[in-house]
């Protein structure tokens, strides 16, 4: 019984580590969803801007493409991250064993990587749209001034992002998943073929099954 308690406690602590990983991914999705919803609102407002008919049609087309891409990318991030936030914890909680927790975290990890790419793509499209709308609505002098300011901000943002990523990103990730000999059912581990832990079928030879 003491040995079974040790095994059970070990797996419980492992699941606590996995729960911390799950909480981390949910926090990231919440931040991405919040910022993307804000940027999607800005992009949808930009689509309602009245463009003079005398403007360059190529600039208008590029403006519509960049604005639409920004809106679509950020809406995609909002929808997918919201779905992951709603269904990910439920899948991990209601599964039959700890394997469901591992699979849920794996799905959230791969989804987070793709959503980060869509988020930065939408951010670039949003900045492009903001620059183009200035050229469509204002005189060349003011448009050039705003473009230079936006360009400097983009360079500063890019450098800061690279610096933060270099400091905080790790080359090799380590997770809390048990890769070998996971105990899926304590009853089977203790020697009970039915997994009920009833009667004299419980054996102390479970250590040979680990």
Automatic annotation (TrEMBL):
<keyword id="KW-0812">Transmembrane</keyword>
<feature type="transmembrane region" description="Helical">
    <location>
        <begin position="58"/>
        <end position="80"/>
    </location>
</feature>
<feature type="transmembrane region" description="Helical">
    <location>
        <begin position="32"/>
        <end position="52"/>
    </location>
</feature>
<feature type="transmembrane region" description="Helical">
    <location>
        <begin position="118"/>
        <end position="138"/>
    </location>
</feature>
<keyword id="KW-1133">Transmembrane helix</keyword>
<feature type="transmembrane region" description="Helical">
    <location>
        <begin position="144"/>
        <end position="162"/>
    </location>
</feature>
<keyword id="KW-0472">Membrane</keyword>
<protein>
    <recommendedName>
        <fullName>H(+)-exporting diphosphatase</fullName>
    </recommendedName>
</protein>
